[in-house]
Amino acid sequence: MTATLTAPRLSLQTLAIADETTTIRSLDWDRDRFDIEFGLQNGTTYNSYLIFGDKTALVDTSHGKFREIYLAELQKQIDLSCLDYLIISHTEPDHSGLVKDVLRLAPQVTVVGTKVALQFLQDLVHHEFKQQIVKNGDQIDLGKGHVLQFVNAPNLHWPDTMMTYDHKTGVLFTCDIFGMHYCRSEVFDQSLTAIMPDYRFYYECLMAPNARSVLAAMKRMDELPPVTIVANGHGPLLRYNVKELTENYRTWSQSQTKGETNVVIFYVSDYGYSDRVSQAIGRGIIKTGVAVEMRDLRTTDLQEIRELVEHASGVVFTTPPQSLEVAQTGVATIIASLKAKQGVGIFESFGGEDEAIDLLANRCQDLGTVLGFPLIRLKAAPTEATYQLCEEAGTDLGQLLSRKQQIQQMKAIDNDLDKAMGRLAGGLYIITAKKGELTSAMLASWVSQASFKPIGVTIAVAKDRAIEALMQVGDHFVLNVLEENNYSHLMRHFLKRFAPGADRFAGVKTQPSRLGIPILTEALAYLECRVESRMDANDHWIVYATGEEGKVSKPDALTAAHYRKVGNHY
Ligand code: FEO
Questions:
Q1: pLDDT of residue 410
Q2: 512-536 burial string, b = 16+ CB within 10 Å, else e?
Q3: Which whole number is the average pLDDT over 205-229?
């Protein structure tokens, strides 16, 4: 038998989107979860743009895997020897992977970017090139009315990021901001329902850990004339729902930043897996309602580091590379600014030259800080399981920091409304899920049938549950129904605290469902379900799922019931 290897599907799409403005979209149909934000597995696109005034500008390029077809298409659209500007919104390789090639073909071009972006680019290109640093509010006039204005957006999600607004067309070029990993042939956002899960998921992974910076960037955006099109770097461009989708960023970020507890995460961009690992930890922290600030040690000055650490409830940082003095000094400053009782987390970046993690941990413990999760040691390139471990580690730290506040809140609220709510009874269930190599489980009681055709259920899942990441739209899970008088050992098992990344099923009898999801052998019945939609209910997600398969193994048994006294905790 021979295995058939299918080449990944890569294609290009070129379209005029506004006056003298063309997009070249690189469609990466099969890209799946390689990075943390690729959880929904709908592929992605890398969007680049040409603006033709009297002078011409290229906004961002593409991923290296599109080299041949992208450069051929670009040269069809423009004689590169006449290209005047190459605008770099941010220097991650999915957008600037072909900058070196463009510079070879257009050596006369002036590269435009923030000071940080051009510094980063120098490390990527390794030779001199014509460049122009731009600051917030600076403009470049291309002629024919195309006056480009630059809007700084640091930390969204890299420190070098900026947006570009074209005063003639009202097009705002945003790169990662307002993007999504969603690859379809539709160029624009016609169907809000289709794109919303990916748009939200992308925000949560990449932007929520930078919510304060998102709000600051939106304030700068508010000063611009109306935006007609958001020309983002990933997914469909926003044209039909500009207001709604951009305002979502504001609302979501406001709710991320309203708590008093906050964690600052220091990483080193473009070093090992530092940024991806820090995003996963950040996502885990945010799930507990604790706000996160992310800062790149390459670009944050020591005074800001001191202030951020002094005001933070918790601090997470990476082991810095030995050869990067600025990161070494940054970590020394973090340690010098830590206070007793602050929550701390440390992770390796797998850059091959990290400072020893144990040494740093000892110094933090000597200061009386509390390690919020076990040290994260990276001995190989991260896998999905690594990212899950990092996310769960972040959740542990967030829960540690928010527990005291939550207990106070629970004690404070003991009124009649809560007591009445506590009289709502539910059944007892174990949800089990599997996605790729990842598995998880949780005890659930807020489960209810929600539709007949198709058979559907809703389940309320607390936002800080690890299993939430495996219950995105399109994912499958199994709802195991527990049996009256035969559930307490299972309840105890699944209620206990698991270390980040621990196997929830060790010592529990299971069998695989049709899709390989663990079914608890002792359950009286099970349903295998597919997630259709999710609703935000403040501290919970309401997951609506349709049943695809089910079986009752103990027809005479009764479902276990759960009674409570108050409605302000489980
Ligand atoms: Fe799409 Fe941060 O690169």
A1: 67
A2: ebeeebbbbebbbbbbbbbbbebee
A3: 95
Nearest CA owner, ligand 1 atom 1? 176
Q: In this predicted model, which residue has the larger pLDDT, 565 or 396?
A: 396
Q: Count structural domains, the chain.
A: 3
Closest residue by Cα to atom 2, ligand 1, is: 92
CATH of the domain at 42: 3.60.15.10
Spell out a b/e string for 480-507, using b for 16 or more CB atoms within 10 Å of the CB, else e: bbbbeeebeebeebbeeebebbeebbee
Provide the residue range defining the domain that includes 18.
4-256
Tell me: the pLDDT tens digits for 151-166?
999 999 899 999 999 9
Residue nearest to atom 3 of ligand 1 (CA): 92
- Using the mean position of ligand 1's atoms as its centre, give its distance from the Cα of residue 176 in Å: 5
Question: pLDDT tens digits, residue range 453-478?
Answer: 999 999 999 999 989 989 999 999 99
Q: What number is the average pLDDT over the span 27-43?
A: 75
Asked whether residue 26 is domain-assigned, the answer is yes
> Which neighbouring-strand residues pair with 50?
22, 58
Ligand 1 centroid from CA 297, angstroms: 19
**The one-letter amino acid at 430:** I
Looking at the fold, whether 381 and 264 belong to one and the same domain comes out as yes
- Which residue ranges have their beta carbon within 6 Å of ligand 1? 90, 92, 94-95, 157-158, 176, 233-234
Q: Is the pLDDT of residue 41 over 50?
A: yes
Report how far ligand 1's centroid is from the alpha carbon of 233 (Å): 8
Is residue 66 one of the residues assigned to a domain? yes
Q: For 58, list phi and psi in degrees, rounded to 5.
A: -110, 125
From ligand 1's centre to the CA of 177, what distance in Å? 9
Q: Which atom of ligand 1 is nearest to the CA of 46?
A: 1
Question: Which of 375, 408, 441 represents a domain boundary (last residue)?
Answer: 408
CATH number of the structural domain spanning residue 498: 2.30.110.10
pTM of the model: 0.87
pLDDT value of residue 39: 66
List the Cα angle 155/176/215 in 5-degree steps: 45
Claim to verify: residue 353 and residue 234 sit in the same structural domain: no
For 393-446, what is each residue's pLDDT tens digit? 999 999 999 887 777 666 666 688 888 998 998 999 999 999 888 899 999 999
**24 contact partners, CB below 8 Å, separation of at least 6:** 12, 13, 14, 47, 48, 49, 50, 62, 70, 73, 74, 77
**pLDDT tens for each residue of 486-523:** 999 999 999 988 888 889 999 999 999 999 999 999 99
Residue at 454 is within a domain:
yes
Which of 197, 226, 256 is the C-terminal boundary of a domain? 256
Q: Which ligand 1 atom is the nearest neighbour of the CA of 157?
A: 2
